[in-house]
Amino acid sequence: MSEITNMAAARNSAVSIKNLNKTIGKRHILHDITFDAYAGEVFGFLGPNGAGKTTTIKMIVGLLSIDDGEISICGKSVAKDFEGALDNIGGIVENPEMYKQLTGYQNLWQYARMRTGVTEQRIKEVVEIVGLSNRINEKITKYSLGMRQRLGVAQAILHHPKVLILDEPTNGLDPAGIKELRDILKKLAHEEGVCVIVSSHLMSEMELMCDRVGVIANGKMLGVYSIDEMLHASSGGGIVTFEVEAESTEDAMAVLSAYDPSASEDGAVKIKLKSEEAREKANEIITALVTNGVKLYSAHPIDDKKSLEDVFIEMTNQEEGDGQIG
Ligand SMILES: Nc1ncnc2c1ncn2[C@@H]1O[C@H](COP(=O)(O)OP(=O)(O)OP(=O)(O)O)[C@@H](O)[C@H]1O
Ligand SMILES: [Mg+2]
């Protein structure tokens, strides 16, 4: 377990989900979903289309009922103490509800009236957090998608929730908009101690935004990893592939049989080596081929490094699903 995971384990969960199941109609959509997310972290809920992210998030924020299992928010059960649990949550599940003919400020004010204890000072504060101070008195019709999304975040955090949940918050945003939102969410988690949960189907995005990711595919949780752990998985787990090109693949395979070689379609012979002994073994392999008279064209380690996207696709493809990585 990495340091981040250990640190997280020592804290109290802000969101704790145990053995969550959901069936809609005849479809069993979620199977025993279990994970914890903590104060002060950005937790990414990562999975291909149709994996069950939105369904899980809807259950966390009380938009869908719980068939079986347990969700608690800051120690309060969503099933047993709905209002207590929901007091600690801010979220955007579908597009944030807004009155388009009103200004950003008026929208926040409308929303603040529905919540107890939201002061004018707090409205000013959240506007600054999301960087909308200059444009807050303009009508929503004049806002870009990125600005609307940021106003949505402002609205969701007005009541100082300990947990902020956003379903695919960067959908449709351009790279600059994504970065702005990412910085806001990281700041909320790392400086204000909010537990931020975001979903996405893009590993590349999660890598930049999150401290840990929970991977879901086909309604099942495949694991929860720190970004460091995902990076380690992508480095090939300490195995190096050594590739040999010889005039005769057959002869090379025979000479190297002790190394468990495999031949690719183009005749290259591949051998997997532990990275710590790769240099020594490479020397043995070359020497064995040369001393046995095998005519050698090239011998070199190949870069097996997978991108994190590849690791994610491999992981989720092991679960047959209806989804695609988009
Ligand atoms: N109301 C519903 N009735 C029947 N099936 C549903 C319903 N809502 C969702 N599903 C199914 O549940 C599965 C999970 O859907 P969900 O929307 O949670 O996935 P997701 O991970 O959010 O995907 P995406 O990345 O596309 O948003 C899908 O197979 C979907 O077809
Ligand atoms: Mg979804």
Description:
By secondary structure, the chain is α/β, with parallel strands linked by helices. Among the domains are: about 5-90 and about 160-235, 3-Layer(aba) Sandwich (Rossmann fold); about 240-300, Alpha-Beta Plaits, CATH 3.30.70. It is built from twelve helices and 14 strands. The strands form three sheets. It has a six-stranded mixed sheet with strand order 6-7-8-3-9-10, sandwiched between helices. The chain has a four-stranded antiparallel sheet with strand order 2-1-4-5. It has a four-stranded antiparallel sheet with strand order 12-13-11-14. Helix 5 crosses helix 6 (about 145-155). The structure holds adenosine-5'-triphosphate and magnesium ion. The site of magnesium ion has 3 residues, from helix 2.
Describe the protein's topology.
Layout (H helix, E strand, L loop, with lengths): L2 H8 L2 E12 L2 E12 L3 E5 L6 H8 L7 E6 L2 E2 L4 H6 L1 E4 L11 H10 L6 H10 L15 H13 L5 E4 L8 H18 L2 E6 L2 H7 L2 E6 L2 E7 H8 L4 E8 L2 H7 L6 E2 L5 E6 L3 H14 L4 E7 L5 H10 L9
Parallel strand pairs: 3-8, 3-9, 6-7, 7-8
Antiparallel strand pairs: 1-2, 1-4, 4-5, 9-10, 11-13, 11-14, 12-13
Bound molecules: adenosine-5'-triphosphate and magnesium ion (MG).
